[in-house]
Amino acid sequence: MNYEWNVSINKAILNNAPKVNKILEENPYIRETAKELRNKKLDVLDNIDFYINKTEESVKKTGGNFHFAKDSNEAMEIVKNIIKDKKNIVLSKSNVLYEIKLRDELSKLGKDVWETDLGEYLVQINNDMPSHLIAPAIHLSKEKVSELLNKNLDKTINENTSVEDMVRAVRKFLMEKYLGSEVGITGANAIASDTGSVLLIENEGNIRIDTVLPEIHIAITGIDKIVPTLKDAFNEVIVQASYAGFYPPTYINVTSGPSATGDIELKKVSPATGPKEFHLILIDNGRKEAINSDLKESLLCIRCGRCYFSCPAYKYYGKDFGDPPYTGPTGIMWSAITAKKYDKSLLCMHSGGCREVCPMDINIPEEIERIKFMELK
Amino acid sequence: MDNDTVNRISKMKKMIFNNLMESYTPFPMDKKYYSSWTDKLPKNKDTIIYTSYMYQISVVLKRYEKLFPKISNINMPKRLMNISKFLIKPDEKELKRSFSIINNISNLLNKNNIDFGYLYDEEPYSGAILLESGFLSEFKEYGNKLYEFFKNKNIKKIITIDPHTTNALKRLKKLINFDIDVKNYIELINFNGSGEYVIHDSCLYSRAMGMYDTIRNKINNSGIKIDEDYLTTSRDMGTCCGGPLSLVSANDSDEIAKLRSEQLLKINENVLVMCPLCYQNLSPYVDNIKDLAEVVS
Q1: pTM for this structure?
Q2: Tell me, what CATH number does B240's domain have?
Q3: Is A229 exposed, middle or buried (0-12, 13-18, 19+ CB in 10 A)?
Q4: Which positions in chain A touch B203 (Cβ < 8 Å)?
Q5: Residue B158: φ, ψ to 5°
């Protein structure tokens, strides 16, 4: 085992697991909400075409554009058609963006593309892949980060620079990128089919800027993120944030179509101050097939990342337990669904902590057992 | 995952499955020897104590695991492989310890007024290794054979004594029509004990089968003091000894056992386990490690 990783993961567990436990003990409604959410998500999976259509109708009603992509290639073609010759693009943290290799593809086209989540920015300048769904840079020590920032951003940063000063330097750099950005591309933590709203949760404030400053906002996510109502969508982001150790979350962003105003004679006019275009791209990429397979339960995952810290394989192998961006116990499921990759499941010891902490009560060890079977049959 | 590993595991699957279908054991072994822990139990009972040879073979399993890659690489003929049962002899002291554990469990069941028999060298292996390695089709197929075997013996209730066998049989209940009652000995008995320990939970008992609270209640009521720590021993955060990984990588399995031991020893130098494989994995790194059945009466 890599010594640096051992130190990093143990620090992360110590900082996160007791905190999540405390949040759940102090707010018992969260566990109840999670149970309710599980049922709502099961309903969506059982009626997926109905909910995709309903989402489409709702997005269009808000003045937004709806797109459905059956795979990564289709999703990228849709993105290219939307952004055309626009060059300056800011991204928020999203595993689906990695899933469709969006940043790589746009960079190949000569676009100036920047991750705006601090962790993802560090992963980007390290030419690396995330090691955790919501904490992508936990494998990088402070020393390594100072080295990266010195090389890529500011020669005055060194190992003695405080974390606060490092964050300040990145913020200054990203501010310039925000101000020049033409397109903001985000994922989504939940999609409300009844209103067509995209909910995004965060602490840094970058997503808020990504979604309102550029004139085009594109949200790209999997069909598994649809929930029946806006209330369910709020429930999903609260459960996700709590199980990730962020309660209350600093920001919950709701986007329902492009910016608009009704301030003159109550006539709705779009755009107003924010984006003039809003696009939702829903991607299948194996998810529909999974609904009708032994892996249906896997699609209930809300990607809170809690299971990582209860997993001996992740603690030992780090991001090698999975195929980035989908690592850890949940990553084994998502890699199986979206990339038909099954081999890393063989490293699972079926320790079972993942199941104990899963807010969606997914029997993850049995899901992985079936994935092992797929690899070895 | 490299192709060699996947190929090796696939070959191993074939070998284990063929052995099971032919002889009810995962690899050639001396069943008479391993079932000689008792000669006092009746044979023809519809309730049986079922060892599935887990405590007995746990003492040689690591050596078999080392042998598997070699066997699969050279495609060793079956007659040569059969010789391995004579080559891989358990350490006498270790085997005596496993016999003593099984005898103590048997005595505890008697003390709790449970009437049962034993199949001696006719006892089959449960097939747990197939299930835990992801060989689900083979596990189900062997499970059907196992079910027929027990039915023909008129077995109505099986008392298991280790987590892997208990889990395998309970999973068979979900996967095939395995309608024989399965109970684990810990569920059936009350016991007395003393001393202070940190528990290394069996992942299968405490998480997969939901016995975490039952185990703690019984141990707490026995007089044994348990030291707990959320990050080390809770249901959420307690982790595996590394054992199940050994077929994929013996080295990684061992490293994980070492890390787990270090974690446990920070809580208490006396470690209590309930699984023969956990014992084998952790014992190189923990001096004072005991199986529950060694410390209660």
Answers
A1: 0.93
A2: 3.40.50
A3: middle
A4: 349-352
A5: -115, 125
